[in-house]
Amino acid sequence: MKHVTVYDIAEEAQVSVATVSRVLNGTAPVSRTTRDRIEAIMLKHQFRPNAVARSLTKRETGIIGVLLPDITNPFFPEVFSGIEQEGLASDNTFFVCNTLGDYGRESHFLRLMREKRVDGILFMGGRVNLKACDPSLARELAEHARGIPLVVVNGDVKNAGLTRVATDEAAGTGLAVRHLIGLGHTRIGFLGGAPHMSTTAVKLRAFRSAMRQAGLTVEERWMIPGGFSADAGREQMKRLLALGRLPTAVCCVNDFTAIGAIKAAVERGLQVPADISVVGFDDILLARHVLPELTTVSQQAGELGRTAVRVLRQLMGGGARPRKTTMLAPELVLRQSTAAPGGGATASIAAGETGRRAALPPRGPSGE
Questions:
Q1: 62, β-bridge pairs
Q2: Gap between the Cα atoms of 135 and 305, Å rounded
Q3: Which tens digit of pLDDT belongs to each residue from 334-352?
Q4: What pLDDT is stored for residue 286 in this prediction?
């Protein structure tokens, strides 16, 4: 079967190659009759324009680069699912890079994306989640952002002037703490995270603030860091249970940590939530499939991804610039892992209400 080119289409339609190009790229008006004739011929030959040639003409590749830190953590594929849904609607394809949170890999992939001439970049994890990003890493990211539209997702680099989209993690932590206090808990701990990570620092500040506003004491020995994985959560709960006086509830830095914490509690013969209530953060798919089903804070991962693409598209369009920060409101998802202290009758949810959501009041995008 002969390979049909744009020249063949132009010859059969008895128009110039430039006219066919205008129909393909929408770069200039073409009469309705001529357009219909050209499109009918392209359909007859099942003609598909060469992507490389179109990119040279339009100076666009249609590719969005996505850097994420851990493709095995369900939260990031859920964010990417939203990215993909929104991007495919505008005919974008994706160059996805798993950085493993390694700054050297991030730098390598940023250079590679520049070479591949991606139209824009969405950046998650790694250096953008550090409390204090190394100045050379911050400069590198800012330099790339000056050359290619770039949006940071759930992170930030201070004084780099980057556009960001994030879920309000401080507000989400406040929702979790106030939920436990509302159930009657006064002895509450916090498990997981790493002191050098901004997401941990934000959640710890919000935890302390919510406790202080309720007139409750924060017991430092019940604040146990040590990572973000299920194994880390299991070890953190084991350390907590080795103490004398225990809290009646714990907030966890993410759902993986909470799942590990529940496992350790059950291994010690405790019942969740009768003996200790557990709240997670993220609302990954697994949260509704463990026993007990996990009460958690939803970051609205899919909507986070969709919003990030919409903001990136504004940057790529060259028109009105988006706000520096677009913030999404979190939601508290009430399930089975929380109840009143001592397993009292006032549970976190009534029978049949598993999965009920308690959200912050609706908020529009906010700017810095």
A1: none
A2: 27
A3: 999 999 998 643 344 333 3
A4: 92
Residue among 349, 348, 361 nearest 181 (CA)? 348
The 3-class secondary structure across the chain, one letter per residue, is: CCCCCHHHHHHHHCCCHHHHHHHHHCCCCCCHHHHHHHHHHHHHCCCCCCHHHHHHHHCCCCEEEEEECCCCCCHHHHHHHHHHHHHHCCCCEEEEEECCCCHHHHHHHHHHHHHCCCCEEEEECHHHHECCCCHHHHHHHHHHHHHCCEEEECCCCCCCCCEEEEECHHHHHHHHHHHHHHHCCCCEEEECECCCEHHHHHHHHHHHHHHHHCCCCCCHHHEECCECCHHHHHHHHHHHHCCCCCCCEEEECCHHHHHHHHHHHHHCCCCCCCCCEEECCECCHHHHCCCCCCEEEECCHHHHHHHHHHHHHHHHHCCCCCCCEEEECCEEEECCCCECHHHCCCECCCCCCCCEEEECCCCCCCCC
Structure tokens at 12: 């059969």
| Residues present in the chain in total | 368
| Distance (Å, whole) CA 351 – CA 345 | 12
**Cβ contacts of residue 17 below 8 Å, gap of 6+?**
6, 7, 10
Q: Both tokens of residue 57?
A: 């003409």
Residue 207 identity: F
pTM over 0.90: no
Under 8 Å between Cβ of 37 and 12: no
pLDDT above 80 (res 47): no
Measured between alpha carbons, how far is 226 from 212 in angstroms, rounded to an integer? Answer: 24
Residue ranges and CATH numbers for the domains of the chain are 6-58 (1.10.260.40), 63-167+302-328 (3.40.50.2300), 169-299+330-359 (3.40.50.2300)
**Residue 235 exposure: Cα atoms within 13 Å on the Cβ side:** 10
pLDDT tens digits, residue range 258-313? Answer: 999 999 999 999 999 999 999 999 999 999 999 999 999 999 999 999 999 999 99
